[in-house]
Amino acid sequence: MLQLFLFLLSILQSNGFLLDNGHSTGNRGTQRDINALLTEERQSRQRLESYVSELYHELSMTKQMASNLTKEYQSLKKALQTDWRNMSGCNSAKLTDESNADQCCIETQYLINNVLTIQDNIYGLLSQAITDMEDTKCKISSSTWTAVFLACANNGQSVINSWNASSSTSTTINGAVTSDASACRLKQVRSSLIDNWSKHNIDQVKVEIYKNGSVIAAFYFNGLGTNHFNWFSKENLLGTTYTDLTRSSTVNYFSIEGIEERHFYINEHFGGCPADEGWLLVRDVTGQVAPCHFDHLTKPPYFIVSPGNKKGRFESGQYILADTIEISVHTNTCKCPSPISVGTEQIIG
Ligand SMILES: *[C@@H]1O[C@H](CO)[C@@H](O)[C@H](O)[C@H]1NC(C)=O
Ligand SMILES: *[C@@H]1O[C@H](CO)[C@@H](O)[C@H](O)[C@H]1NC(C)=O
Ligand SMILES: *[C@@H]1O[C@H](CO)[C@@H](O)[C@H](O)[C@H]1NC(C)=O
Ligand SMILES: *[C@@H]1O[C@H](CO)[C@@H](O)[C@H](O)[C@H]1NC(C)=O
Ligand SMILES: CC(=O)N[C@H]1CO[C@H](CO)[C@@H](O)[C@@H]1O
């Protein structure tokens, strides 16, 4: 039982499920590698699902065992108490007054205390294991990814305004947003979940950049304790398809607000337009300030990402113009139960 639990924990950890940095390893450079990475994640999530049913079974067995043990524990305790009381001299004996009891009584007393201490320890371990299993089961079964934002390039609708609040640039819907790119042809699509960010137990946020129906870059962020803007930061980065971007990377911009009309901007440094190097940029619509060629490539908004798995110099053509950006939140609505309280019965004292 404990082995199964540890096994599950290791699976959860190795899949980035427990906010682990599970997406940034390896020397992945090509679209094929990124697809493989995403497929790998999907498959491991499916494996996880199948372990859940196994876990349910283990859990019900363990609960039954605990219930049986509790009954045995109660009757053993009763028997020991009765036996002890029946012994000559024990009736008048007090725990703190050894002179008042005979040796047999003291030994029995000692034995009873030890047996019950051991029982209590076993009972405590068992109930802890059950609580952990309930917790794991609960976390798995109540955790989901929900798409909350879908932005199309070139539709003339500001991405940052659409993200920020309901306005004429977007359609706000309740619940999950569709991943179908045709939905944002005229306006960006947002979920009202964004407006109640702190009420949804968001523990992770995922940004996926699409080109021609495939994810060409992805970023994972911590969502705990964030608001709808500050999750997008270097400090909250959990993983990405870029191998040269981590929480310890040097950046001059890493925020939704960015600078001027460069939003969702992840940039390493400025060096005059040709030397500017970065990973992601949403060129938004209101822009008057356009110092670089990459600031006026096509009809706004447009999405520039570095190709492959490393930062790029956009001005030298090291970029891909993406079609859509999808943002999803991972939520955990788990209210984890404590099925059994630790046994603390005392027989003497
Ligand atoms: C618990 O006790 C019941 C009845 O005594 C028995 O049928 C069952 O197999 C026991 N369960 C476990 C897990 O020991
Ligand atoms: C112990 O004492 C109780 C009464 O206090 C009595 O009913 C019981 O039979 C005794 N048990 C033994 C094993 O002597
Ligand atoms: C977001 O909208 C609020 C008003 O709802 C406004 O005060 C704020 O400046 C906007 N933030 C950005 C970054 O556009
Ligand atoms: C986009 O995908 C379609 C099929 O899904 C394919 O026919 C087309 O060649 C792709 N275009 C590019 C530029 O990759
Ligand atoms: C639960 C909650 O606070 N819901 C609010 C989420 O935000 C929308 C506005 O977009 C409100 O209408 C809801 O009441």
TrEMBL record:
Keywords: Signal. Residues 1-16 form the signal peptide. This is Fibrinogen C-terminal domain-containing protein. The lineage of its organism: Eukaryota, Metazoa, Spiralia, Lophotrochozoa, Mollusca. The keyword Signal applies.
